[in-house]
Specification:
With 261 residues, the chain is α/β, with parallel strands linked by helices. 39% of the residues lie in helices and 10% in strands. The chain folds into two domains: 1-81, no CATH class; 114-260, no CATH class. The chain has a six-stranded mixed sheet with strand order 2-1-3-4-5-6. A hairpin with a 5-residue loop joins strand 4 (200-205) and strand 5 (211-217).
Length: 261
C-alpha cells in the first residue's frame, strides 16, 4: 500500500501547530511535541472534536492551500516526529490491530519472527526500542485512542447508557466490566517478556491512553482471537463469560494479565 503523509489533515496536526512555540530553539522541539501529545491525551473526546472538525474541513485541499501547514511548519513540526506509516495508522481502522515491537535483543530476533503474524507492525529500533514500557508510542501517535471500540470517533462522543449495560452483581467481575466499558483501542505488544516466554501480550487502552486490561495469548491463537474480535467478541464477551463464575474470577480465571487458553 502506498501511503501519503497528508500533512495538516490529522486532528493532532491542527492541535500541535496551534500550540507550537517557534521562539524555542529546534533542539527543544522533541520535548515540545511530547508535551503536546501528553496534553492531547488529557482532553476529553468532546474537547478533541473541534480539531477533528478542522482536519475534516481541509481534507480535500491541495498541499499549500490556506488552512494547511506551509513547508517550514511541515519540516520543523510534523515531519520529524511522525513517520508516514504512523500518521496513516493513527486514523481509525476497525479492521486493523497494530503490533508494536519494543525488544531488539539480537539473541531474541528469531523469537520475534515466530510471534509476529505479518500484519501492521511498528518495527524500528531507533523509534520503538524500550526496556521500560510501551507508552512512548502514544507520544508519537497520540490519536490512537481517538475512537470507540468500533473504530469511529462520533459514536464515542455519546454518553454510555448504563441501563443497557448494567454492572454485574459480582464485585469480582466489576474491574473487567469497567475495562470493557472504557476500552477503545487494542494492540499487540512484542516486548522482552513476550519474546522470552513465547506469548503475545494484548492490551486495551481507553481514550486517555491508559491500559485498562491485558491478556496473553499463544501465537497460534492469534487468528482465532482476531476472528472473535472482528465478530464483536471484545472485552464485553469476556464479561459475559466471567459473569456467574465468581469463584473462577476470584482465583485468577480471566483475571487481568492471565493467559487465554
Amino acid at each position: 500500500m502506498e501511503w501519503e503523509a497528508q500533512y495538516g489533515k490529522l486532528a493532532f496536526d491542527q492541535f500541535v501547530l496551534e500550540r507550537w512555540d517557534y521562539t524555542l530553539s529546534p533542539p527543544e522541539d522533541p520535548l515540545q511535541w511530547i508535551s503536546s501529545a501528553k496534553t492531547w491525551l488529557t482532553l476529553s473526546l468532546a474537547q478533541r472534536k473541534p480539531y477533528h472538525d478542522k482536519s475534516f474541513a481541509v481534507r480535500s485541499l491541495l498541499p499549500g492551500s490556506p488552512g494547511l501547514p506551509n513547508q517550514s511548519q511541515i519540516s520543523r513540526v510534523l515531519q520529524p516526529h511522525q513517520t508516514i506509516s504512523e500518521r496513516n495508522l493513527s486514523i481509525p481502522h476497525f479492521h486493523r490491530h497494530i503490533w508494536l515491537r519494543t525488544c531488539y535483543d539480537p539473541a531474541l530476533a528469531n523469537k520475534y519472527h515466530d510471534l509476529w503474524n505479518g500484519e501492521d507492525v511498528l518495527d524500528d529500533e531507533t523509534l520503538y526500542a524500550s526496556e521500560t514500557g510501551w507508552e512512548h508510542i502514544l507520544h508519537r501517535m497520540p490519536m490512537l485512542c481517538d475512537r470507540d471500540k468500533w473504530g469511529t470517533l462520533d459514536e464515542c462522543l455519546f454518553p454510555y447508557d448504563e441501563n443497557e449495560n448494567r454492572p454485574p452483581e459480582s464485585h469480582h467481575i466489576f474491574p473487567l466490566y469497567d475495562a470493557a466499558h472504557r476500552e477503545v483501542f487494542m494492540f499487540y505488544l512484542l516486548d522482552r517478556q513476550a519474546l522470552e516466554e513465547g506469548l503475545i501480550t494484548v492490551l486495551w487502552l481507553d481514550n486517555f491512553g491508559e491500559c485498562v486490561w491485558w491478556y496473553r495469548i499463544h501465537p497460534d491463537q492469534v487468528l482465532e482471537f482476531e476472528g472473535g474480535i472482528l465478530s464483536g467478541c471484545g472485552l464485553d464477551w469476556f464479561v459475559e463469560m466471567a459473569d456467574g463464575e465468581e469463584e473462577g474470577v476470584e482465583n485468577g480465571y480471566l483475571a487481568k494479565g492471565s493467559l487465554l487458553d
